[in-house]
Write a structure and sequence with these properties.
There is one protein chain. With 728 residues, the chain is α/β, with parallel strands linked by helices. The longest helix has 53 residues, at 220-272. The N and C termini lie far apart (87 Å).
């Protein structure tokens, strides 16, 4: 197939689905209209059947062209008023539309489409056209015909689902590894800084000792040493350049690898996505057959079938949706006679809507039948659990295993398994299923699951000194609530949100970890408000950390039966954290799970170690003094000259300053003078540690009000430490 033919075939599939959806909507709109002649909706239906016929001819799909031609004729007769749009006519049109979908569905699945003989015959019978026997035999002879060239399926590669799942996990691991390389970049940055500092020190030493080295170079005993010093300086400069180059190359490699990994992950996720129609379109025939077996008439409509979701999610939802459809036909929709007696139309309405919102697949199944009799549910529930139950509890009870209100058991219902299968499957997919209240007769079930269960956008939080992730789709809002705003209602803690009390639970208590008497740092309680169906509850944690996308994987162990945990994910530093299931948390948030409110931790009075600022342009001297002081419990900061020291002191004062004298930009004498001239800094003790040992230098330092003067040649750390202890 050429590229043009492939593009044309893909366009036709979208156009075909659009035409059929509009025609079905028009039929639903006109089903209760007595006089249809002259309605503009029929003009639209006729136009769409005509367009569908031309589009099918363009791609050589003769079966769909024949069905569209028959529909065009039927709508033409109805427009003219020569034929009524009655129930028989609507049934034939729906049959033709279903047959057209089956033909295009066969193409999508790379199968040869069968001749829609039954639908074509129904159209001919309605129009009063008698087809000769030889034409019927000729039509049957097309069963083995090749797929039309214009609609040949694109080349397909069959890949087991588990292989694709492993590929998704592998791409996630590659992305995690690329993110972990950020720590390598940080190490290289630090290494480059240290090597650069060594190169600067070598250059400073060369300038300071230029005259001395020139005098010693002519002496035989020192020429080898000076040559060796030059060799070391050259190697340090080369090492600095190589370190800088390695850092840049590593940063570019990390950036390129991360982009490639992210693109690969998007491509693999895209390969997992499939249109919902691939799995749900077959429900039309199933509903028609079930309704016929139950002696009921059902108008089934499916909208939003073009929504794309993870194939594994769609496959997992196939049985739950099928259970809901079977339940609606068996329990909900009445027989035509019952419906007429209640003042309803004889044909029941069953609508399946698909939509995607904020990374979630939304499935709504609605019928106009009997609805769910909550009084009967309460009666059945009271047999096992006596007492008064809220409407919310009654709505959730129908999803319990073995629960049924059916008086008899047949092949469709009565065993109490259908809705429990729905709940368990949706719960396993980190989703929700609720029975929605309706003003008009009937029932409405709403399912919400992630479009993909492989990856989720997570909120990372801390609880009982452990890190957890929770999908953000289950979080309604985050708060930091003052502890004195937590109230008690009927002996249980609640928080007032938007004027309504919301029960408050502790995550550590729900997960059965941590202290039974928790303490809180500060007076603000981090609270996340979760919502599952109509249930709204607040859960407090120790701390909110950050948000990130993560690949959720199996933990390789048996998960708790509470359903609180979905799996695990890998953080950027390579550690594994547990991912929580919002629906599971909702199920465990019962009155018996109420935990204690944390108390404010008493502030711990800690003695802060004295802070000393060491000012010296020599990295060797700075490092030596810093290591000595830190070994004796002091907090030490360093500066390379007087100007940097003043900048640091304006940000944070020090308890004591140790300074050299000979430094660039501002020497030690100028630093002491500046300190004593500043009212904020003049009380800080200053010790001069210098190689200048002339009496006049020492006298000058003391005249500037330095508190002590230590000569480096006679340096004794005991003397220095004793001086420090006397001053702070």
């Amino acid at each position: 197939m050429t590229a043009i033919q492939q593009k044309l075939a893909a366009i036709f599939q979208g156009e075909h689905a659009e035409h059929l959806e509009h025609i079905r909507s028009i039929l639903a709109l006109l089903e209760h209209v007595v006089e249809t002649k002259g309605r503009i909706e029929l003009d639209e239906a006729f136009r769409r059947a005509h367009s569908l016929k031309g589009a099918a001819r363009a791609v050589d799909l003769n079966a769909v062209e024949g069905l569209a031609s028959g529909l065009e004729t039927l709508f033409s007769r109805v427009r003219e008023g020569t034929m009524p749009l009655d129930r028989q006519m609507a049934r034939v049109i729906h049959q033709a539309l279903d047959a057209s979908e089956e033909c295009v569905g066969a193409f999508r699945e790379n199968r040869i489409p069968e001749e829609p003989a039954a639908a074509l015959r129904a159209i001919d019978d309605l129009l009063g056209i008698e087809k000769p026997a030889d034409e019927e035999r000729a039509g049957k002879g097309t069963e083995g015909a090749p797929v039309p060239m214009g609609l040949q399926a694109a080349e397909m590669v069959r890949l087991p689902a588990e292989n694709l799942d492993r590929l998704v996990r592998s791409t996630g691991q590659i992305l995690t590894e690329s993110q972990r390389q950020a720590s390598v970049s940080a190490e290289l940055d630090a290494l480059e800084g240290q090597v650069g500092e060594m190169a600067t020190e070598c250059l400073r030493f060369r300038k300071a000792s230029a005259a001395l080295r020139w005098r010693l170079a002519s002496q035989p005993g020192y020429s080898a040493m000076i040559k060796h010093l030059g060799f070391i300086e050259q190697k340090v400069r080369t090492l600095a350049a190589q370190t800088s180059t390695a850092r840049l190359l590593q940063q570019r490699s990390v950036w390129s690898t991360r982009r490639s990994a992210e693109q690969l992950q998007r491509d693999v996720w895209g390969a997992r996505m499939a249109p919902a129609e691939d799995l749900f379109e077959g429900f039309r025939k199933m509903v028609r057959d079930l309704a016929r077996d139950e002696n009921k008439e059902v108008d089934f409509r499916l909208s939003g079938s073009g929504v794309r979701a993870d194939r594994s999610v769609l496959q997992a939802l196939k049985d739950p949706v099928m259970h809901l459809l079977r339940n609606a036909i068996s329990h909900g929709i009445e027989t035509p006679a019952e419906r007429v007696a209640k003042g309803k139309a004889p044909v029941g309405s069953l609508i399946l809507r698909l939509d995607s919102q904020r990374g979630r697949l939304i499935i709504e199944l609605e019928d106009d039948g009997r609805g769910v009799d909550l009084n009967k549910v309460a009666k059945v529930l009271s047999e096992d659990e006596p007492g008064v139950h809220s409407a919310e509890e009654l709505a959730q009870a129908i999803f319990r295993p073995g629960f049924s209100t059916a008086a008899t058991v047949n092949h469709l219902s009565g065993r109490g398994m259908g809705l429990s299968v729905v709940y368990e499957t949706v719960h396993r997919l980190q989703g929700d299923v609720v029975l929605r209240t309706k003003d008009d007769p009937g029932a409405s079930f709403l399912l919400s699951v992630p479009l993909s269960v492989s990856t989720s956008h997570l909120l990372l939080l801390c609880c009982a000194d452990q890190i957890f992730g929770i999908p953000t789709h289950g979080i309604e809002r985050l708060y930091r609530i003052r502890l004195d705003k937590v109230e008690t209602l009927e002996g249980r803690p609640v928080v007032m949100l938007e004027g309504k009390p919301v029960p408050l639970y502790g995550l550590a208590h729900l997960l059965r970890i941590g202290d039974e008497s928790p303490t809180l740092r500060g007076d603000r309680l981090p609270v996340m408000v979760l919502k599952s169906g109509a249930k709204r509850f607040a859960v407090w944690v120790d701390e909110f950390l950050t948000e990130r996308d993560a690949l959720i994987q199996e933990l390789g162990m048996r998960l708790p039966t509470t359903g609180n945990i979905s799996g695990g994910a890998i953080s950027r530093d390579g550690t594994v954290f547990v991912v929580l299931n919002p629906s599971g948390l909702a199920a465990t948030c019962m009155p018996s799970a109420i935990s204690q409110i944390p108390r404010i931790a008493k502030p711990v009075v800690e003695t802060m170690a004295s802070g000393i600022l060491v000012v010296d342009d020599s990295i060797t001297s700075r490092s030596l003094e810093k290591s000595i002081l830190e070994a004796h419990g002091y907090r030490v900061r360093v500066a390379v000259d007087g100007l940097e020291a003043l900048e640091m002191l304006r940000i944070e004062k020090a308890d004591l300053i140790i300074t050299d004298i000979q430094m660039p930009r501002m020497d030690g004498f100028a630093l002491v003078a500046a300190l004593k001239a500043d009212s904020r800094l003049k009380e800080i003790p200053v010790i001069i540690v210098s190689s200048l040992e002339r009496a006049e230098d020492q006298e000058r330092g003391l005249l500037l009000e330095a508190d002590a003067y230590v000569v480096k040649r006679k340096f004794d750390q005991t003397e220095l430490l004793n001086a420090i202890r006397q001053m702070i």
